[in-house]
Design goal:
heterodimer, A: mainly beta, three-stranded antiparallel beta sheet, B: mainly beta, seven-stranded mixed beta sheet, four-stranded antiparallel beta sheet, 11 strands, globular
Amino acid sequence: AQRVTQPEKLLSVFKGAPVELKCNYSYSGSPELFWYVQYSRQRLQLLLRHISRESIKGFTADLNKGETSFHLKKPFAQEEDSAMYYCALSGGGTSYGKLTFGQGTILTVHP
Amino acid sequence: KAGVTQTPRYLIKTRGQQVTLSCSPISGHRSVSWYQQTPGQGLQFLFEYFSETQRNKGNFPGRFSGRQFSNSRSEMNVSTLELGDSALYLCASSPLGVGSSYEQYFGPGTRLTVT
């Protein structure tokens, strides 16, 4: 079975502070991990995927297979980063059309 | 390219009725997945269709069904509606071609309220 855990429902930081949103997963094979973001009154959109190893809007995430984690980080948070963030896992193979989501973390960046 | 579109955006139904929701994927995307989003359960996978075949299914009762047409458009149907079916239903499409990742692109959702 595949499972994604985001331990923090709420996370508050001040503008300019570093931010880390935690994500741990459980999967027996080689998963593909994603971070999705949902800004207020907007649709869910892809932020990062682990295979591309890219930085989007200053966010990065590294897949740690030993710790089964895929934490999202940004060195200097901005007010426009305030949103709901979801970590998601795709199992690959025949189940790659199924995403398993964590419960989400609401990030609030205060001025 | 135009994004994923879903119709209708809002629906109000009565317990016991049935409902059909529609999703048009991004042009060229052949995989369509459906999710239910509620405050209590979060985002839960319903099913995924690829080339008109259901390829993956989540843990939902048989009242929830779907189909995909030859142009990749998809519909989901919920029969004998219950109050607990009130939710935001999201559709997502994916290219899933050679060299593509498995990322999915989401529509705005259909807000279903069952009274």
